[in-house]
Amino acid sequence: MSEAALKVLKEVFGHAGFRGAQADIVQHVASGGDALVLMPTGGGKSLCYQVPALLRSGTAVVVSPLIALMQDQVAAMTQLGVRAAFLNSTLDLDQVREVERSLLDGTLDLLYVAPERLNTPRCLDLLSHIRPALFAIDEAHCVAQWGHDFRPEYLQLSVLHERFPDVPRIALTATADPATRDEIIDRLALHDARVFVSSFDRPNIRYTIVDKDDARKQLLRFIRTEHPEDAGIVYCLSRKKVDETAEWLVAQGLKALPYHAGMDAATRAAHQARFQREEGLIVVATIAFGMGIDKPDVRFVAHLDLPRSIEGYYQETGRAGRDGGAADAWMAYGLADVVQQRRFIDQSEGSEAFRRISGSKLDALLGLCETAQCRRVHLLAYFGEEGVPCGNCDNCLNPPETWDASVASQKALSAIYRTGQRFGAGHLIDVLRGKDGERIRQWAHDQLSVYGIGKAEDEHHWRSVFRQLVALGLARVDHESYGALVLTEAARPVLRGERTVMMRRIPERVREAARRARS
Ligand code: ADP
Ligand code: ZN
User: Fold this and answer.
1) Do the beta carbons of residue 275 and residue 226 sit within 8 Å?
2) Sheet holding 35-38: strands in order across?
3) Which residue of 56, 92, 138, 245 has the fewest C-beta atoms within 10 A of its own C-beta?
4) pTM of this prediction?
5) Closest of 329, 339, 345, 333 to residue 304, by C-alpha
6) Atom of ligand 1 nearest to the CA of 9
7) How far is Cα 409 from Cα 205, in angstroms, rounded to an integer?
């Protein structure tokens, strides 16, 4: 059987050999077993069901929520000579009938179906007239109710097991935290499935997270020193910032193009094609850029804004170094990013539970940003994997010192408290440093006991303290008032002097670079 699988891999897909767990997975599913595949994005999940689809008789049914990608997938399969089609809401009735006819005629190898379509009596009835080769459930984490991609239609996919107990099922996802894994197994009734967990480690990526000062200049310095001629992706949160940053990089003499959903489709496609084809091009993009890019030699991925979660960060940085060569994941992060992301969460339409989960995902990401530990170890631990310090991330290469920040924390927390928990870090720092100004006088903050008690330290120092207070959960950014810092319950023992707070010291080298970037 593995002979046959290899033959299909070579002759149909044109690949020389399987990668990682692919061979085992293909073997297992082709011989009729159920499987749950946890593999990072870009790991090669598709072949895990496409090859068995061709090895088993009948049509393989692939459930996918990504309707927008189905047409591309079918086109790509057709080009390889695989007989593929899709059923989703973009087809008119005649087209649906045609696909249904080929299915009944047994002339399809692969059928992609949207979950809401599959759950209809019409579709289930249709499937009962054929003998499906297998069911592949892509993006299986969509079944996890508290996940950020939850799709109610996915819950009904357990019907597949009831209606077609003898047809093997393979569920695939790039979300590997243990809670999601268990939920997938439960809700899809995959208790007998073999679980294939691929490592999420990307050893050739060097992770660096810097303290944001003047992000654009920091970025330029990073590109000029580390990747002067290389292809890379720069992620920004807003379309406006994408346009501005791309323009600015071009003005600095770099080859850069913007990409975001607000641009017309033709321009977008043209920019993507140029990125794919040309060497040394930088694309400045929102997260709309990513799906379907398959450029192996992206040498760096830079974030000028904070992603929403560790999953997002991992997925976006994962686009670097697919060829296995050394690559950089570089991010600049500051408290303003946290404030902004919080605001998105608080203003989102989602349920209370959704907001709570989004909040804790953001906190997990802040933990990664502020850790003094190996970034890779921290990242892998989040995905339920153990690792040893990598020797290749910023923290391993330049271990951050930690310092006893208990007194500084007391000062900063007192400043929050004394000013009525209504101000952002910028104003609080002015108070601590005893700055004079209209705003200070207007609120009579120069009359407070905390006024000027942080004079000995510079603004940079205090910014880092406030950021870490948030990351440590001692203060949080408030919902309603615009980015005001408020105390949490955990701040009490610190204020009473009952708890020590250790923080990472921003290395002098980094401060120096920040000062230079500013000037
Ligand atoms: P995922 O769905 O896990 O994100 P894909 O299935 O899209 O990943 O595969 C990512 C890329 O890796 C694709 O371009 C695919 O052609 C390539 N790929 C996957 N498996 C192999 C292999 N065994 N040999 C060569 N290329 C592969
Ligand atoms: Zn490390």
Assistant:
1) no
2) 84-87, 110-113, 60-63, 134-137, 169-173, 35-38, 194-197
3) 92
4) 0.73
5) 333
6) 23
7) 34
